[in-house]
């Protein structure tokens, strides 16, 4: 009788996990972002005052954040744009490219980086190289997709006259009125997607992010996107990141190129060429 009770208890614990795993796999097959278990256990958002560093600037470094970008949704529906606005701004060449894209070939599925304004559904952190004086470098460290990181130069330098296209581009940053972190980026490649719908861009892409901590637990990110090769004019999207609960840290995330969804799953990696 005791063995039966043990088996029944184990089944009761495993069944929700199996159901959640099955739901996650089904969502992934439809191009949806997987659920975030850390976020599911989150405390209500904190509404206290903005923590500040001794120099008066907002403290963006105390804990990990989650969100702040398109994640699994579209930059139009989640980024605060009006319905149909993105389509009206998109140039014919970009529309044609988006129309022929296969959502199962999302670069994210092949362990490629998620780039501005997109974020993974996992925690990330701001990291600066100094705490006792002004930082010359700032890094954004992501849990998802090969533990990728972005480097932002905070020492007043300008963008180089010539840039080799890269996934994260070349970023320079500064604080606006001590309240908003501004990140200006050029030199992107054209390989990543803005969202799971396949919204495209070209190597002419220029982004300006404005990160503002509006209270203890909320970080607003306003991203202006300028790409004369894909859109008729610049436009701005708005996103919100939430502070992770104490103890929720960036975890190990193994997503090597061609792993799982890629060659191991019978899919050729189109980004390896």
Account of the protein in words:
This protein has 273 residues and is of the alpha+beta class. The chain has one domain (37-265). Helices cover 18% and strands 22% of the residues. It has five helices and nine strands; from the N terminus they run ααβααββαββββββ. The chain has helices at 2-29, 37-40, 85-89, 92-99, 144-147; strands spanning 65-67, 124-128, 137-142, 149-153, 170-176, 180-186, 206-215, 218-226, 235-243. It has a nine-stranded mixed beta sheet. Strand 8 and strand 9 (235-243) form a beta hairpin. It is globular and about 50 Å long. The termini are far apart. The model is unreliable at 1-34 (pLDDT under 50).
Into how many domains do the coordinates divide? 1
Rg calculated over all Cα atoms: 20 Å
Q: Tell me the number of strands.
A: 9
Strand content: 15-25%
Estimated helix fraction: 10-25%
Core attributes:
9-stranded mixed β-sheet; 22% strand; disordered N terminus; globular; 273 residues; alpha+beta
What is the compact description of this entry?
18% of the residues lie in helices and 22% in strands. With 273 residues, it is an alpha+beta fold. A 9-stranded mixed β-sheet has the order 1-9-8-7-6-5-4-3-2.
Q: What's the topology here?
A:
Layout: H1 2-29, H2 37-40, E1 65-67, H3 85-89, H4 92-99, E2 124-128, E3 137-142, H5 144-147, E4 149-153, E5 170-176, E6 180-186, E7 206-215, E8 218-226, E9 235-243
Parallel strand pairs: 4-5
Antiparallel strand pairs: 1-9, 2-3, 3-4, 5-6, 6-7, 7-8, 8-9
